[in-house]
């Protein structure tokens, strides 16, 4: 069912193997279904500034403890604007799919250190499990990822890809954010 107020929402993502793009488009579908106007943009392809949107969601994935530099640049360029409107950050990685508590803590620290470093204060932050895309990696990446997977007790059959994303959690995150932005003081700007 559509909600009464339609918001203009921008989703900007950084991706290396495509999972964060897939998650972004899934969120787009959830938000559109609720009657919002949604634009999805790749951070590396000149995404629009946040200024003409009611809310912004930014997603990025972790590779060797870092997010995509295009996302870092986008946030650095628009920190002030981002801090003026309701915004959310979702971090995609494999550590949060691990049974090891320490891995979760490490992923959380990468995210909080990053947000502190760029000076952006999103209203909502979440961790989303990504994917192991063995078939898309080159020889070296496959070797490294297989080694890490082995250490963490994950599958080492490199003939297939494995998706750990909890789509219900992604749906809840997008839906809750949509509710949250309507109660934000800036929500009165929307028509
Ligand atoms: C070379 C490489 C390095 C990675 N480094 C990390 C890491 O440091 N921590 C982690 O939790 N996940 C790591 N991952 C897992 C990715 O975050 C995961 O595969 C994610 O789904 C990638 O999202 P993307 O397809 O949007 O780039 C790494 C993956 C690759 C291929």
How would you describe what is shown here?
The protein has helices at residues 19-33, 69-82, 101-118, 139-151, 167-182, and strands at 8-13, 37-42, 55-61, 87-93, 124-129, 131-132, 162-163. The protein is α/β, with parallel strands linked by helices and 191 residues long. A five-stranded parallel β-sheet has the order 2-1-3-4-5, sandwiched between helices. Strands 6-7 form a two-stranded antiparallel ribbon. Helix 1 crosses helix 5. It is globular. The chain binds flavin mononucleotide. Flavin mononucleotide is lined by residues 15-20, 61-65, 92-95, 107, 130-131, 141, 144-145.
Short description:
The protein is 40% helix and 19% strand.
Query: Which of globular, elongated, flat, extended, rod-shaped describes the shape?
Result: globular
Please give the largest β-sheet.
5 strands, parallel
Please report the number of helical segments.
5
Structural class: alpha/beta
Could you tell me which ligands this complex binds, including any ions or cofactors?
flavin mononucleotide
Report the radius of gyration as a whole number of Å.
Answer: 17 Å
Q: Tell me the distance between the termini.
A: 18 Å
User: Unreliable runs, pLDDT <50, ≥5 residues?
Assistant: none
Strand content: 15-25%
**What average pLDDT do the residues reach?**
93
Side-by-side strand order of the widest sheet: 2-1-3-4-5
Helical fraction equals 25-40%
Order of helices and strands: EHEEHEHEEHEH
Q: How many beta-strand runs?
A: 7
